[in-house]
């Protein structure tokens, strides 16, 4: 008997979120719905907009940070105008093994971002090909959040050893699934070899779709000027780029932070008005994790709770987003 009430309840929840008014003065209140003009991300007034924020780690590895209080702290203290919710598709307790838990974690973060008036990237955090699972997931997300200006869909985190023809076919299918429900919101498309094989994208881009951008990922300790030059080349060919994951150390997520290269990337992104997301809000024993294990799951992260990368990231985001 109870089943008959599930859809109305979901519908009510969806309507309430879709009609939620962003807090006065918040990034979403000021900028509204996003779109692309040429290679540039723009706000509702067609003015160029740069998003800068932090990515949560895999939901199935660090679920404790998937809550509204952590989102509020990132918005208010770190001055993030965007956060990235990384739904782990593989490993134990992932979306493939426990989809209800994944949706629970993601919803807390997405709803928290909406209430705080910041943008949120819904990231299908996979290296492997899972076409049907992605279509199912994004159909659910689009049905729940369609029309909400906060939401950005990232349909494949980092394709690893795939050719662009395979990534493109997957992307076109998932984009069509989303667009059947949500016709406008921004979609981020991955590219082969951890979002760095942008040349193949430029040679054969997705056609007939609006408001899509292509992800580029860098780790400054490994990816030097050659990746900046490659990105400049594809942007000159009309390919819009969104840096949906980046950090200052080696691509392994470990090793020393290359502060000189991080500074070079910061200046390069600023000059080109590129949006970027730093990896990651987590407490793993590696360089790219921003927090110490004793940090609260609810924010209130004073300086003594931040690892070196956390301090650098917070400062970089605040510098980017504080006028």
TrEMBL record:
Gene3D superfamilies given in the database record: Glycosidases (3.20.20.80)
One MF annotation (Gene Ontology) recorded for this entry: hydrolase activity, hydrolyzing O-glycosyl compounds
GO biological process: polysaccharide catabolic process
Database matches in InterPro entries: GH, Glyco_hydro_5, Glyco_hydro_5_CS
Pfam family, one: Cellulase
Domain Glycoside hydrolase family: 42-284
SUPFAM superfamilies the record matches: (Trans)glycosidases
Keyword terms of this UniProt record: Glycosidase, Hydrolase, Signal
First and last residue of the signal peptide: 1-21
Protein family (similarity comment): Belongs to the glycosyl hydrolase 5 (cellulase A) family.
Name this polypeptide is given: Endoglucanase
């Amino acid at each position: 008997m109870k089943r008959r009430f599930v859809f109305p309840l979901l519908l009510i929840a969806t309507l309430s979120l879709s009609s939620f008014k962003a807090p006065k003065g918040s990034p979403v209140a000021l900028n509204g719905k996003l779109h692309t003009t040429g290679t540039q991300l723009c706000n509702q007034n067609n003015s160029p907009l740069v998003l800068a924020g932090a990515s949560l780690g895999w939901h199935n590895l660090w679920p404790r940070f998937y809550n509204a209080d952590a989102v509020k702290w990132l918005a208010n203290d770190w001055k993030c105008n965007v956060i990235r919710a990384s739904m782990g598709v593989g490993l134990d307790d992932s979306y493939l093994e426990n989809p209800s838990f994944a949706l629970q974690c993601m919803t807390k973060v997405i709803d928290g971002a909406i209430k705080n008036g910041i943008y949120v990237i819904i990231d299908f955090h996979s290296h492997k090909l899972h076409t049907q699972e992605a279509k199912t997931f994004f159909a659910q997300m689009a049905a729940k959040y369609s029309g909400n200006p906060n939401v950005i869909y990232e349909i494949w985190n980092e394709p690893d050893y795939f050719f662009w023809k395979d990534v493109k076919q997957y992307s076109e299918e998932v984009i069509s699934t989303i667009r059947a429900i949500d016709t406008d919101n921004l979609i981020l498309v991955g590219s082969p070899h951890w979002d760095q094989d942008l040349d193949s994208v430029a040679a054969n881009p997705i056609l007939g779709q609006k408001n899509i951008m292509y992800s580029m990922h860098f780790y400054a300790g490994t990816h030097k000027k050659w990746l900046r030059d490659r990105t400049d080349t594809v942007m000159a060919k009309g390919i819009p780029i969104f840096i949906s994951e980046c950090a200052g150390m080696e691509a392994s997520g470990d090793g020393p932070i290359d502060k000189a290269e991080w500074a070079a990337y910061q200046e390069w992104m600023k000059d080109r008005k590129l949006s970027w997301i730093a990896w990651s809000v987590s407490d793993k024993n590696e360089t790219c994790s921003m927090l110490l294990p004793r940090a609260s799951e609810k924010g209130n992260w004073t300086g003594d709770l931040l690892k070196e990368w956390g301090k650098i990231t917070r400062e970089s985001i605040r510098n980017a987003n504080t006028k």
